[in-house]
Design goal:
By secondary structure, this protein is an all-alpha fold. It has one domain: Orthogonal Bundle (Helix Hairpins). About 70% of the residues lie in helices and about 0% in strands. The chain is built from five helices and no strands. Helix 2 packs antiparallel against helix 4 and helix 3 runs antiparallel to helix 4. The radius of gyration is 16 Å and the shape is globular. It starts with 5 loop residues before the first helix and ends with a helix.
């Protein structure tokens, strides 16, 4: 089963019985078979998110505020790839934990407003 809107469709899964590898693979077109059973479902994507976030930080690490706009133009594809990697692993984590990303983001935004 593939969703029309890749990330929003996947992270709104509720209930059990979903085949994680098939859903994630079909939804975002990323191979998942080799990941299954290697480490805990929560640990692997959590660690990968940290690694990918560090790779994104590297893009901006030594840039001054005045240099960021030019850096984004020059390195846009690389920056977008790192953001996509983070989104992919966040999608895995949400699927693994049966968490609705839009729901928890709304809840957190509401909490932050208080």
């Amino acid at each position: 089963m593939a969703f029309q809107e890749p990330l929003s469709g996947l992270v709104t899964l509720s209930g059990g019985g979903h085949d994680r590898g098939r859903i994630v693979g079909d939804t975002i077109g990323f191979p998942t078979g080799e990941r299954l059973g290697t480490v805990s479902y929560a640990e692997e994507p959590s660690a990968a998110i940290c690694v990918e976030a560090a790779e994104l930080l590297e893009q901006f690490q030594w840039a001054r505020d005045a240099e960021v706009a030019e850096l984004v133009i020059r390195e846009r594809e690389s920056i977008e790839n790192e953001i996509a990697d983070i989104a992919i692993f966040l999608t895995y984590l949400c699927a693994d934990l049966n968490v609705s990303l839009p729901d928890i983001v709304r809840r957190k935004v509401d909490l932050n407003r208080k």
